[in-house]
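Same chain as my last thread, 935 residues:
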Amino acid sequence: MNRSCVSLLLCVSSIGMNAVSHAAQLSMEELAAVFRTEPDVEPIRVLTVTATHGFRHTPAIDAAKKVLGALNGTTEFSFDFTEDVDDFNRANLERYDLLFFANSTLRVDEPTQDAVGYEAALEFRPGDWRNFDAVLKTAERDIKGRIALSGRPGELSGMAEFGAGVSVIDEIAEEGDQLRLIWDAGSNTTVTAEVTLTDDGLTGHLKVGEQSLPLEGVVVDARQTENRDVQNPVTADHRAAIVDFLCTGVGIVGSHSSLDAFYGWGEYRRMVGGGLFESHPWTQRVRILIEDPDNPAVAHMGDELVIRDEIYVLDNNPRWNSHVLASLDTGSVGIEQGPADGSRNDYPISWLREHKGGRVFMTKLGHFPEVWTNPVFLQHLLQGMRMTAGRIPANFASRRIKETISENVWPDDIAVDEKGNVWIAELRGKIHRFDAETEKTTQIAHLETTDPTKLEHGLYGIEVDPNFYDGEPYVYLYYAERETFTNTLARYRYEDGRLNLNAGEVLLRVPTEPQCCHQAGDLEWGLDGTLFVSTGDTGMSETRPEWELSEESISVYKTAAGLKDYHWSRLVDSERSAQNLQDLRGKILRINKDGSLPTDNPFYGKPGVRWEIYAYGLRNPYRFKVHPTTGDLYIGVVGPDARYDYDEYDISTNGGENYGWPRSLGKLFYNDWAPEDIPNYVPPLWEYTYATGGRSATMGPIYQHTGKGAFPKIFQGKVFIFDWARRWIKWADVELGTFSNDAENDVRNTPLNVELPAYRFTNIRNFDQLTTTAPIAMELGPDGSLYLAEFDGFWDAGPNAKVTRYRWVTGSDVIDTFSNVTRSAMGSEALGQQIYDARCASCHQASGQGVSGVFPPLAGTRWVTGDESRLISLILDGVSGELEVNGIVYNGAMPPWANSLDDTQIAAVLTHIRSSWGNRARSVTADKVAGVRSR
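reply #2:
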């Protein structure tokens, strides 16, 4: 690209999509000039598919053809366009470096067995789309169109198209099955459709001015339940040719509605990242956040991009198996914070991924024709294509995997030491150690503690000394003493593979009440080596004022305080604990690891105060974490049980903070309490009620890890939170914002109105949703992995309890089937079979017979059963050019696996191949692979 063209592109980029019209004013010749490349650049041959079976984005497709056609003359790209699905054949695809689905919405002839949701019933369910292929009947002809509705009854949105481009429906009035739709069709023309929904479509009239035309529609499921009059659908042979094309190490690119395609083809879903179109709630100007600003496809956009486009919501998030480049800023579409349930709240916009040895680049952008004529988008698309064609180096493989590392345990809390060993505490007193080197879990002690059926007592927390491997091999336990129920912090020496429970040092005792609840009990190290301990208020969950106060005294109190009602907040018990600085309950405490007290504690030296106290006014701070660089405390607090009560997350930046319990919690100030009645009051980071289910707000780590094993940049500095009752795990930013109170549930005659500056969670997004277990403790390991204790059962262990680990793997493809298995427990035979199924079977077939003339057989060939060193070299280095197998010359390519699989994995898959389909050759060892690799 010449210097003047670069300047023009940078100028437009600095304007960004805030001024789409500026970019739209560039002619095709000017656009072609902007992207001019030197004549000696290696060509990239692209088969551009614009064929559609679903909704056709005619204006955008026409614009794409014009601009890409113009680029044929000035860039290294050679774009061929097709509407013929018969071009999906091996001989034709061999001519190309890229297959580009440009807003194509193709369908298959018959759903494959692995297709998702193709048998879904046509129901008008909340959150589902209902699409109609519509016909408008005029005197001269029938006009075909499309109407799409989304949302839930009472909150519908939608779009319509009848040959003049897509229009957003501005107004939808509902009365049962009767709908009135109004939209602007351009040229100051307002269209009104009055329709009645039926089981299989709609009927009614469309009014334009004085004209009223009959309108009929047939419902079309967005998930493609069947082929509805699709002409020339994509057949099994077509699909096989596409997969074979990708297996040769080339690339596939998709824009916008290519994600509204191939619902009946499971392989395509996996190819593009796992998710396909579910809805498009935002057709508007949006802000897009750039997650990898160094990537060539988004580097020109800076930190963000503002664009008017149609943003798809997919039915499965591609983030967890892709390298995400950009994502939607949910605040730009009115979502200020993530919901406290499992609703989707993370919307990647563009991403890269590796699949079957080939490269894939997807972008949701491209709905409007003016997007296609904007240099910012074109640079995004062309650079994505260059990476996918292998002309620009890029990391396409990025994937989160989850592994079970310990089973047959009932984890209540875990600690991860500096070597990655995991220490596991059970509520009933058992203690286990997962050895990171041997990947084995061993019980190392059984502490005598209380029976947990005595309401939440037992072994609460575990920590490992930060100098464990430097002469202080101590493990710290917080537990209820068996006879007295006193909550006790003690440390024990680990020696000879066991925890010596006979020589413990008691560091702290916290009196509790044996009849009930809210014990908290988490342990965390401060940056200076001090030890933090969380304590609950131990209050009765069901204590009510009327149990200790007469109706007359309550009435007098209400009148004096100006209350129309009263909250039964714990005025009778938690004041004496959580708000009492002479009591250790309802607090975060801080001690030195030998039991002495830090002299810089916020209340140290003050008379009449317990000097261990670091922060107070907490109900049940079950889990908290220390920020790895600032030392700030992030605290998850489980709240009480009334419908108006909250759970909350808090932050301590200096110590001495009061979070208000029982005078306040979340957004609610109880009865006549106000912020000025709460000394040192600090508002919460986030809060939520029972509106979306049960709740147990719990804190995970603040992610900070770079280098090998690190999660993507977007996760750096993010706070992980989880809810034990709702079973979700989320991640969030922390920013300065404004806290406002809950006036609706205020019981004053004149409700309180509070607005305070405060740190707040923003961009709250889903990380995972458990189903058979509940997250109860989460730690960041020294390898960048996230370790999770998964609780099952109540007072006794359930069958699904375990400890798992989330890892992020980049730089090579990762086998799909590794996502939920324990590799250490997987035999070599099973491992080899899984790798073959994930990486080889689509090309060489499950039978090992290959594809005639395209992929050589693996059964009955000396290439496989002969010299194992030669076979290992072929796998490590890949194949390019001619290869003769059984007298037949194959001219193809297989990507190298040297960086994709380790020695154990390569040995396993080669052993599987050499012993399957009648092959009888000796096993391949990992040492043999390592020897060949080192040559």
